[in-house]
Amino acid sequence: MSVAKNLDRIKSQLPENVTLVAVSKFHPKEALEEAYNAGQRIFGESRVQELDGKVKDLSSDIQWHLIGHLQTNKVKFIVPYIDTIQSVDSWKILFEINKYAEQTGRNIKCLLEIKIAQEDSKFGLSFDDCRTLLRDQNWRALRYVRICGLMGMASLTDDEVQIRKEFKSLKSFSDELKSSFFSDNPEFCEISMGMSHDYKIAVEEGATIVRVGTSIFGEREY
């Protein structure tokens, strides 16, 4: 099945209030162009070097989301063009994003990455670490960073009960933070969760953004 048909199928399954991020990491620019020609405008990448190359070669109206772990020394390379950084997992990263965003005069949308999976290999803040970060209040002074919600990845498992439980925990935590820290900020409304194997469950549990790659582009090229 073609990329365009895959996109149509997935979009037909998503409510209007759910945004589809086409995860294009490890796929050639030709695949992205096919998705672009089919109407997709939001793409997700996880490696700064790969993202940087694609930005130079593809249309300027694409909204790029960084979904992979971000090192502080790579922030300056993506701030000039990135739309959303979904993988913010420390105060240091937030500070660096704000610093370089100020230099470029841009506002960067950020999602706080929360570790909900039962896997040591996953990145993200624990619930308690996230609460501590927000209680410190320093983030309120970052004029060029817009904290718009949370991102999380469920465990890589076929156990739908566990996946649903993890997604429920992220939605519940989002509600808690909205009440405690963002009650006056309508921008804090995004919950990015769900990938090719579990995005339908994520939507049922409150996702506003899903990150789908394999179901659109097929298996990755390594």
Automatic annotation (TrEMBL):
Keywords: Pyridoxal phosphate. Pfam families: Ala_racemase_N. Its cofactor is pyridoxal 5'-phosphate. Residues 3-220 form the Alanine racemase N-terminal domain. The modification N6-(pyridoxal phosphate)lysine is found at K25. Gene3D superfamilies: Alanine racemase. Transmembrane segments: none annotated. CDD domains: PLPDE_III_YBL036c_like. InterPro entries: Ala_racemase_N (IPR001608), PLP-binding_barrel (IPR029066), PyrdxlP_homeostasis (IPR011078). GO terms for molecular function: pyridoxal phosphate binding. PANTHER family: PROLINE SYNTHETASE CO-TRANSCRIBED BACTERIAL HOMOLOG PROTEIN (PTHR10146), PYRIDOXAL PHOSPHATE HOMEOSTASIS PROTEIN (PTHR10146:SF14). NCBIfam families: YggS family pyridoxal phosphate-dependent enzyme (TIGR00044). Pyridoxal 5'-phosphate (PLP)-binding protein, which is involved in PLP homeostasis. Belongs to the pyridoxal phosphate-binding protein YggS/PROSC family. This is Pyridoxal phosphate homeostasis protein. It comes from Dysgonomonas capnocytophagoides.
